[in-house]
Amino acid sequence: MKAMLVDKDKNLVWSDVPDPVIKDDEVLVKIYAAALNRADLLQREGKYPSPKGCPEWMGLEISGEIVELGKSVSNWKLGDKVCALLGGGGYAEYVAVKHDMLMPVPRGITMEEASSLPEAYATSYLNLFIEGHLEAGQTAFIPAGASGLASVAIPMAKAFGARVITSVLSDEIAEKIKPLGADVIINSTTQCVEEILKAEEERGTPVSVSMDCLSGETLGKSLPYMAEGGYWVVISTLAGIETTVQLRPLLTKGLHLVGSMLRKRTPEFKAWLLSELVNNVWCKLESGEMKPSVYKVLPIEEAEEAHAILYRGENIGKVVLKIAKE
Amino acid sequence: MKAMLVDKDKNLVWSDVPDPVIKDDEVLVKIYAAALNRADLLQREGKYPSPKGCPEWMGLEISGEIVELGKSVSNWKLGDKVCALLGGGGYAEYVAVKHDMLMPVPRGITMEEASSLPEAYATSYLNLFIEGHLEAGQTAFIPAGASGLASVAIPMAKAFGARVITSVLSDEIAEKIKPLGADVIINSTTQCVEEILKAEEERGTPVSVSMDCLSGETLGKSLPYMAEGGYWVVISTLAGIETTVQLRPLLTKGLHLVGSMLRKRTPEFKAWLLSELVNNVWCKLESGEMKPSVYKVLPIEEAEEAHAILYRGENIGKVVLKIAKE
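^ inputs. structure came back:
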């Protein structure tokens, strides 16, 4: 089969690789679409290798059709349309997936849209509700509102009854992301994030949960204005790898600063997380309460341009590679 | 009755105050002994007032005898020997206590010893096992090994099968606290705490849980050497109220930095915590596996000297005020 390798000059090359051989508890999925993640760029640069046992090529999430079943797999059948969370290996024609890393494609969702669900939905659900313990009526702070992840996390937090604050880099982007439904959109180029979070505390709506891909010094400056018992969940460090934490408010408010990466979780945890998603969130996609957020679909031949969109940071929502026709 | 008030010059004055009147769900306890806590010193200085609904005078833990029962109290009887966790009001002859803030005095433990149990045992159990999720075979870092709290927390962590690292300010103190059973005692005057924690990680015994009353810059310098999924629980900030956190190790190791104060917990939580103590830890006191750690017992008339011992930091273990004879 074909898979997207990275050559020594860091170019993407659609190359011949051995066909995957499934284990007894796996299924073979013919891939229709693979969605991009920022982690793909890091992996391409050699900074974020696939975990052991996964294909070396990029791709954390796909949609497709089951074309072969392992001997012990009883919860799926040939022809099932699925989406899957992968440790790696999504930029390819086929992938072997353990039976409990698959989810059914929600009713009314296209295969391209379905490919964009697993990583962002699992990451958002994990960090908002499991690590962050977000509850209806609380305020969530989800910075980088124009990111693919925020395009899922903001509507998800809203769909579960939270108030949402986000941040973007310009008024123009603020306008663009209005449809996501955030209650407050901070322009962090002209406004001071921590001052706004302080004002939120003063008006009685302090942040209970932050799912933070930016971090940096803004994190430490904002922490003191959180709600009692709040959770600040660091999921990336795009704005800085250090922060100064004020320990008195951490102590007196009983705050939690937590680092959280989906990719490093155990297979058992991931399987449980996906079952939670199907049980609690898929209904909101099927009812139309939440909508997948696909910015652009490009054919696999244009993978280079797809990556360039992420490098330029122009996408609002997810970028998807179309690999095969249904 | 008498209670210890603080006059406008911050002197301790054994004064007449109104007798407590119990509610239906409370009991009246004749106090035999009250144990001191560092929070008492802060309260005396006006920096840590009693929570609403509690007597204004100091005292977070006592032992005594039940001399009156509220109408709806069925789980205790007159004459029961008890110890209690209080929001305040322990430096007195009597105190009204809600029925679920009491614990029986463990068999073989004196009343003076019993008064020293609730705060330190509840704090240690809360932060090591509930906030910190400490498990047998893991390593716990409990700095300030000569503190009253560490004199409980170190043997408790050991009794539950953990490896324990502590720190003290001199070789002399290190020698004195050897009986507590810590596996490693760092002299933080001559040794670098984070270097030792780094070495622990290199030898395969990284710190999974820290119950940290010192905090300050050492906290941030030490975090990167924790075990995957570790919990650093800040319970005080005696060594500094700020720290610089490296967010990459926080993220990649899935670490948790948590602020935790016993005193601010809800009454329901405290009641549950005390029941956990009686169920899981009292047996270890009754078997002799853990021993109460009382440094000195002074009569209530010498409360000033008792406080001076804490101010000077000379005590290894708890200081107890004797208020009445059994």
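Chain B touches chain A at residues 215-216, 219-220, 234-237, 240-261, 264 (CB under 8 Å). The CA atoms of residues 10 and 45 of chain B lie 7 Å apart.
thumbs up if we can close this ticket
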